[in-house]
Hints:
Blueprint: H1 2-23, H2 34-50, H3 57-75, H4 79-94
Amino acid sequence: MIKRLILAAAIGAALTGASLAQDKPAAQEPAADPAVEACLQKAFELAQSAEEKKLSDADLDQLEQMLSKMEGHCDAKETADADKVAGEIKAMLDSKK
């Protein structure tokens, strides 16, 4: 399940980049925003750390929703909100075995 979450996060990030690339001419395409990339990397790392936990299906569903919310904040360049969700994810993971 976690591997599916990681794959979904990676695909989502790739599709977002591809979608943005199609919206702009190649000559005017700006470089990827480092803050967005760092934020998405943090979400990816949290998903990887969740692999080590024995999470129930309910916990996995909650984690998937939280990661999606965090990625949405990352894409919208709302780093403070993304960091808040990341803290919630970390707290949830820390409370599990």
